[in-house]
């Protein structure tokens, strides 16, 4: 099994557990250059809030889009947008990525900005 297959397997396992909780989901996807975050509805059909390092307001705020500082900025903004939409409690879906580095920085920043998970 290669790296991508392992990540997708972890992702499916995690999403099946989150589905049983019946709660809003904060999903994270990362590439080498960017990081993306979305808050999805309980059924997974609607996007409530989104943020990524591709957006102009975040690109201006950070020098490099592929590091922990950029990830924490995305975490703050996604939390602000979710709270403004009325969502404060979410399940953290790391999409099979290991919980360290940029994924952990995003999660910590989102917690500090008001999301509970």
Key words describing this protein structure:
single chain; alpha+beta; 117 residues; four-stranded mixed sheet; Nucleotidyltransferase, domain 5
Topology:
Blueprint: H1 3-21, E1 25-30, E2 35-40, E3 47-52, H2 56-61, H3 68-84, E4 91-93, H4 102-112
Parallel strand pairs: 1-4
Antiparallel strand pairs: 1-2, 2-3
Helix pairs in contact: 3-4
Summarize the entry for a quick read.
This protein has 117 residues and is an alpha+beta fold. The chain is 45% helix and 18% strand. The chain has helices spanning 3-21, 56-61, 68-84, 102-112, and strands spanning 25-30, 35-40, 47-52, 91-93.
Protein described:
The longest helix is centred in the N-terminal third of the chain and has 19 residues, at 3-21. The chain has helices at residues 3-21, 56-61, 68-84, 102-112; strands at residues 25-30, 35-40, 47-52, 91-93. Helix 3 runs parallel beside helix 4 (102-112). The chain has a single domain (3-112), classed as Nucleotidyltransferase, domain 5. The protein has 4 helices and 4 strands, in the order H-E-E-E-H-H-E-H. Strands 3-2-1-4 form a 4-stranded mixed beta sheet. It has 117 residues and is α+β, with helices and mostly antiparallel strands.
């Amino acid at each position: 099994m290669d790296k991508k297959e392992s990540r997708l397997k972890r992702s499916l396992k995690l999403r099946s557990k989150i589905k049983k909780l019946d709660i809003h989901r904060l999903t994270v996807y990362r590439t080498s250059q960017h990081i993306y975050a979305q808050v999805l509805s309980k059924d997974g059909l609607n996007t409530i809030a989104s943020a990524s390092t591709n957006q102009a307001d975040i690109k201006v705020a950070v020098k490099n889009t592929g590091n922990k500082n950029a990830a924490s900025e995305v975490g703050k903004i996604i939390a602000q947008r979710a709270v403004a939409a009325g969502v404060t409690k979410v399940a953290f879906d790391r999409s099979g990525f290991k919980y360290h580095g940029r994924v952990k920085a995003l999660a910590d920043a989102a917690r500090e900005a008001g999301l509970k998970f």
